[in-house]
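$ ./design --mode recover --in tokens.txt
reading tokens...
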């Protein structure tokens, strides 16, 4: 039987989502729990996508196959029992056998949080401590040019080669509350580092009078400076065509 889990995690103390030898990862911890539940049978989970070191998730999704006579409630409880406290399985359900958590994705939603107020040491692992004023009106003007279907190679990981850097961003919403700026990115998928690179480039465009269109059209990562730190990034939700 194939199961789809929805889970959240605090990425602060993980070396990213993807399983890696001798490192603490989200995938590794969940698979260890499932292997124990299955009586030692190796169970592999397939997520909607990877998140980097120190990136968080509200509603990550993954599927796995398990042939065991156990109710959904007991399976959810068992996984939560054997995973650490910085991971939590929020929901589990049966899906069709040909469903795939990555390839059946319709939309992905990410949130990036920026603190433009005083430095907050308590939130340093959860919000980008920019700690300077940022003109939101200018930010809104710049980010509009990132919406649509484009070649986003200017915002890709330089070391990762892709057959295509074309993706579609359906919308980018900006809100501000108590000196925290929230950027919500909705798209059909994102390249590695794409959102963090876009945030870094947007900040540079707002503060140094650059134009995000020029960066986008350049297809060149070297046209701007720093990538935004991972602590402010959250995988907010994943939408599917059918499950």
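writing sequence...
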């Amino acid at each position: 039987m194939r199961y789809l889990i929805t889970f959240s995690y605090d990425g602060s103390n993980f070396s990213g989502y993807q399983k890696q030898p001798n490192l603490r990862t989200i995938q590794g911890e969940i698979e260890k729990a499932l292997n124990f539940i299955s009586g030692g049978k190796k169970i592999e989970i397939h997520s909607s996508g990877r998140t980097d070191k120190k990136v968080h998730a509200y509603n990550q999704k993954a599927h796995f196959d398990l042939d065991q006579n156990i109710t959904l409630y007991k399976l959810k409880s068992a996984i939560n029992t054997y995973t650490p406290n910085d991971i939590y399985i929020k929901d589990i359900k049966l899906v069709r056998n040909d469903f795939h958590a990555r390839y059946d994705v319709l939309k992905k939603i990410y949130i990036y949080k920026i603190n433009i107020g005083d430095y907050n040491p308590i939130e340093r692992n959860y919000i980008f401590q920019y700690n300077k004023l940022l003109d939101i009106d200018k930010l809104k003007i710049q980010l509009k040019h990132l919406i649509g279907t484009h070649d986003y190679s200017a915002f890709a990981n330089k070391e990762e080669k892709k057959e295509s850097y074309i993706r579609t961003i359906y919308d980018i919403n900006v809100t501000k509350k108590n000196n925290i700026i929230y950027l919500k990115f909705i798209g059909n998928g994102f390249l590695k580092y794409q959102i963090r690179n876009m945030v870094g480039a947007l900040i540079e465009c707002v503060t140094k009078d650059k134009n995000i269109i020029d960066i986008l059209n350049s297809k060149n990562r070297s046209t701007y400076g720093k990538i935004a730190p991972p602590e402010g990034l959250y995988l907010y939700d994943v939408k599917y065509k059918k499950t």
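exit 0
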